[in-house]
Write a structure and sequence with these properties.
The strands form two sheets. This protein has a six-stranded mixed β-sheet with strand order 4-3-2-1-11-12. It is 30% helix and 20% strand. With 251 residues, it is an alpha/beta fold.
């Protein structure tokens, strides 16, 4: 079983939000995602989807996009991004998907789960204090995200104790928990202290050479999986709990 990752799908099946207004590289991006996904992902594989999934503003509006994801091969684990306004409580999300028969979709929040031999945890994250637009309100949101990550890491620890614990541990986030210059944060500190192997993140839509290098900081390898940064193709993270050597960059 293989583990893939892709973030920032920005689907808009029920709303008028063409992504090519942000540049020609977004032209026909949904068709490219579907084609790449279908060619690479098998029915027994898992794809981690790191936020900014749909431009919908309600679950009903999101149905077309969630149905598209469900129809693609494999199991999908979804994380909330800053533009996922349709995202509600986990109970409502799960009830909606059950009612609509979207059985291949699963949601990650304040918890952890196994996938393809790996151990998965994570949270959305937020702007870091080094950001020029960081405000007192951002500080409050960041503190909440730290609590959510702590809950997820605790769930991860308990999960590994109940199983063999041999697979690599992966944190899925939307915002990068390290700066574009490689400075850490309270979020990245938690990941290092918990002994995470990888942190996958999206959100970034401009060139950042440091992120492109897939750096390893305090034991954690950071890999950017925003769709436009990886050619709208799910990135193979590994197989049967073992990290794909090709995704690891320089030190």
């Amino acid at each position: 079983m293989k583990l893939f990752a892709l973030a920032d799908l920005h689907l808009a099946g029920s709303v008028d939000k063409p992504m090519d207004i942000f540049g020609s590289r977004w032209r026909a991006h949904v068709e490219r995602i579907v084609d790449n996904w279908t060619r690479q992902v098998g029915p027994e594989d898992t794809v981690l989807i790191g936020g900014d999934i749909s431009w919908a503003k309600s679950l009903d509006e999101a149905l077309a996009d969630l149905t598209l994801l469900h129809q693609l091969p494999g199991r999908k684990i979804l994380l909330r991004g800053n533009h996922d306004y349709w995202w509600t409580t986990i109970r409502k999300l799960e009830a909606f998907c059950q009612a609509q028969g979207l059985t291949s979709l699963h949601f990650l929040r304040n918890d952890a789960c196994p996938a393809a031999g790996f151990y998965i945890c994570g949270t959305r994250g937020w702007l870091l204090p080094s950001d020029s637009e960081f405000s007192s309100n951002d500080e409050k949101i960041l503190r909440r995200e730290m609590i959510r990550l702590e809950l997820s890491l605790k769930a991860l620890e308990q999960l590994k104790k109940r199983t063999d614990g041999l697979g690599a541990s992966v944190a899925l986030m939307h915002y990068p928990p390290i700066t574009e210059k490689g400075e850490g944060s309270d979020l990245s500190r938690l990941l290092s202290e918990a002994g995470l192997d990888l942190c996958l993140f999206g959100h970034i839509h401009h060139d950042v050479p440091f992120y492109d290098s897939r750096p390893k900081i305090d034991g954690v390898r950071y890999i950017m999986v925003a769709s436009d940064q990886i050619d709208f193709s799910p990135l193979l993270i590994g197989e049967d709990g073992q990290i794909n050597p090709a995704v690891e960059g320089g030190e």
